[in-house]
Design goal:
Layout (H helix, E strand, L loop, with lengths): L1 H120 L1 E3 H4 L4 E2 L22 E3 H16 L3 E6 L4 H9 L21 E7 L28 H16 L2 E3 L6 E4 L16
Parallel strand pairs: 2-4
Antiparallel strand pairs: 1-3, 4-5, 5-7, 6-7
């Protein structure tokens, strides 16, 4: 009976063994497949790692390029800013140049008009002929007996050419002695003469506009002398003093004042001028009556 059991048991063991073998084979096959898959995955992973590293290197290279581009862009921005500033500066300089050109054109036009006025009326700018002569035109401001300005700003001291030449000769003599002429008035338009006549404080000091003054002919000058330091020599009075002290024959002039008046008068007379009794500062060309009365505004010169 035991033999039968033993014989019956053997087939089951074989089946179990076969099942085990099959199971083992399957497991081995699965493991082998898994190993193959794992190897494939590992290879794929390695390829991924290499690709990722390459990509990382590309990214780093691109970042370096981007950084360089940003630096260049910043440099370009600075360059553009500099060029913009230069362009603005150029525009400003162009605007200034255009303004200067316009001013020069206006000055040329004014000078041409002034030149025509000078030529037509034979008047010249005294300082243009002798820059050493000083000019302080009292009627171009309010520092005069009328306390009002009747000449335009920046008026020039004008005289007949013939009279100006005589004055320059006198100034050459004065300069040798260490002095220089200072002009308070020269050519005076006839219209201004009328204003002065209307404001004259005393009769007999301002020539009537109907007959005119030697100033209206461009042939008279009101003047004094200054030393090498620019100080006015001691004279009887200031300019346009209508008192008796301004007269040449005033009896109470100091010896120094008398010496200065006589010296200035002597030189001016030697050069073709004469003085008048009531005004020590006034000298007129001996040929003044040969010249016409003029009423050309000083703003024409």
């Amino acid at each position: 009976m035991n033999n039968r059991r033993g014989k019956a048991y053997q087939p089951r063991q074989r089946l179990l063994l076969i099942a085990f073998i099959i199971s083992s084979a399957i497991s081995i096959a699965l493991i082998a497949a898994l190993l193959v898959k794992t190897g494939s995955i590992r290879a794929e992973w390695n390829r991924y790692i290499r690709g990722n590293n390459a990509l990382q290197e590309d990214i780093e290279e691109q970042q370096a390029v981007v950084k360089q581009l940003e630096e260049k862009n910043n440099e370009l921005k600075k360059t553009i800013a500099g060029l913009t500033d230069e362009n603005t500066g150029l525009k400003d300089r162009i605007t200034e140049a255009e303004h200067e050109n316009l001013v020069l054109k206006q000055q040329v036009q004014q000078r041409e008009a002034a030149y025509r006025a000078e030529v037509f009326n034979n008047l010249v700018d005294v300082q243009a002929l002798d820059p050493d002569i000083l000019v302080d035109l009292r009627y171009a401001d309010e520092n005069n007996f009328m306390n009002r300005q009747v000449y335009p700003d920046k008026s020039r001291a004008l005289l007949r050419r013939e009279t100006a030449i005589k004055l320059i000769k006198a100034n050459e003599i004065f300069k040798k002695d260490g002095y220089t002429i200072k002009i308070w008035d020269a050519y005076r338009p006839l219209s201004v003469q009328r204003i002065m006549w209307e404001h004259s404080p005393l009769p007999g000091y301002i020539a009537h506009p109907d007959t005119g003054s030697k100033h209206n002919r461009g042939a008279a000058v009101d003047m004094t002398l200054v030393d090498e330091e620019g100080r006015e020599l001691e004279m009887p009075t200031g300019f346009d003093d209508f008192s008796e002290k301004a007269a040449r024959d005033y009896a109470n002039h100091s010896s120094k004042v008398r010496e200065n008046i006589d010296y200035m008068t002597r030189v001016m007379v030697s050069c073709g001028f004469r003085g008048i009794r009531t005004e020590w500062w006034h000298f007129e060309d001996l040929d003044a009556n040969n010249y016409p009365l003029l009423d050309v505004g000083l703003d024409s010169f």
